[in-house]
Amino acid sequence: MNIADQTFPAVDNANEDRAQAIRDQLRDAIVDRRLAPGTKLSEGEVGILFDVSRTVARAALQMLSFEGLVRTERNRGAFVANPSPEEARQVFASRRLIEPGIAIAAAGRMTPAHVVAFKAQLDEEGRFIAERGPSARRSEIKASGDFHLLLASVAGNLILQRFMEELVARSSLVIALYGRSGVSSCGHSEHMNILEALENGNSERASALMLHHIDHIEADLDLRVRSGPALRQALEF
Amino acid sequence: MNIADQTFPAVDNANEDRAQAIRDQLRDAIVDRRLAPGTKLSEGEVGILFDVSRTVARAALQMLSFEGLVRTERNRGAFVANPSPEEARQVFASRRLIEPGIAIAAAGRMTPAHVVAFKAQLDEEGRFIAERGPSARRSEIKASGDFHLLLASVAGNLILQRFMEELVARSSLVIALYGRSGVSSCGHSEHMNILEALENGNSERASALMLHHIDHIEADLDLRVRSGPALRQALEF
DNA sequence: TCAGGAAAGATTGCATACGATTTTTGCGAG
DNA sequence: CTCGCAAAAATCGTATGCAATCTTTCCTGA
């Protein structure tokens, strides 16, 4: 897949940092799997696509590299990350450690406004599950991640929120790579159960449900190495 | 304080990424408080100090900005971060969430070689506590952080390890800003207790000790806003 | 004396240029 | 036809230049 096959909406937010806007667009594309793992992201090409110089494109790629969504090799360039099974396990181990705590924190800070936001989120999530087609499936993965990001924002810790943004993005990559079935509908109901616990201020229950939810997501992955690890690495695919 | 008042060892590691080497040096300087919070880090000055162009200096500053050690404002430049009390609380809340889990993971992976490394680390830590003078005190803060980083590396999760690197660095800043006494000697004995639990494979105890340890560190801070928050912000100090 | 504002200076944001390194292409030998 | 190697093309790393923005200085008028 060539990055040039894709078109990106123009970056109108010229006032704000352009590199950041490009990073956001690329991140969405990576998380949605419009850009496949291993895809080369050359500075020049990114620059042309977004109509900026290589300087700005490079800054955006550097940001993605920090988030672990892009792997850069000196003098070779940037590539969409291709997480190994081990890396995938570490992503989920990190989430198991952090997200139950986030759920507890969020349970203590829920307001009616938050509940409304969660309901809207879950509605949208449900819509994408009902729809068919690859586009809906991409949106579904994204919406599922948004639930966790919303929870992190309610928890009110900006540092943990940023960690979660990284973990959710990397999880999406992992699910795209190693996901087996549509566990998502199951995940949707788990999200609803978590929200219910949050609404009732039952932080212990929310935390426990979250832990199981993460376990279920990981359990749906097939993390066996396929066709020899070295080969895949060598082929960058 | 002017950044030019400091001198930095030359970056000899020319083969590797120069921006990264500069970032490491600057990070050490920030964590050691050789660069005070609020200090301006102008691209040009950094470039001259390290004998690189602004391009490279800028990349290093961008990295530090991602780690939260530097705050950048558009068209104004980069400044050594000046964490607010609220930010400080979030740093420690994050550590309370993450580090007990790291301790558990590490307890299950301790090898004799790890024990040796920890003992060497604690020895060094003790030496700095015995010494007097501001230089030893800086080294002491750094060594204390290194204990936690060593633990994170033993835990074997690269993602969490990177999170901890960020949290420890930011903690050092916070302690330098809001620290009250030399709780460090107390912290040193707590480190030793944690190591003992790790050696015995007593993960529950290591985890609990770690939690208390973090609580103790935070309890030693004076997080009341001083002389009005707005004023300090406005003065960037 | 002090406030207001314009001009000078400094610094950043970004584009571009050039050498260095890597990758691809092309060609000849086996 | 394939392999190996050299030249060409592409791409990266970095320095530098210019316009835009911010900061400081200094002058003027009250």
SSE class of chain A: mainly alpha
Poorly predicted tracts of residues of chain A: 1-15, 228-237
Find the CATH topology of the largest domain in chain A: Four Helix Bundle (Hemerythrin (Met), subunit A)
Main interface by residue count: A-B, 25 and 25 residues
The top level CATH class name of the largest domain in chain A: Mainly Alpha
How would you describe this protein?
Two copies of one chain form a homodimer. The first copy, chain A, is mainly alpha-helical. Chain A has two domains: 78 residues, Winged helix-like DNA-binding domain superfamily/Winged helix DNA-binding domain (Arc Repressor Mutant, subunit A); 135 residues, GntR ligand-binding domain-like (Four Helix Bundle (Hemerythrin (Met), subunit A), Up-down Bundle), CATH 1.20.120.530. In chain A, 68% of the residues lie in helices and 4% in strands. Chain A has ten helices and three strands; from the N terminus they run αβααββααααααα. Chain A has a three-stranded antiparallel beta sheet with strand order 1-3-2. In chain A, strand 2 and strand 3 form a beta hairpin. The radius of gyration of chain A is 18 Å and the shape is globular. The N terminus and C terminus of chain A are likely disordered. At the A-B interface, helix 3, helix 4 and helix 7 of A face helix 3, helix 4 and helix 7 of B. Chain A binds a DNA duplex (30 and 30 nucleotides) through helix 3.
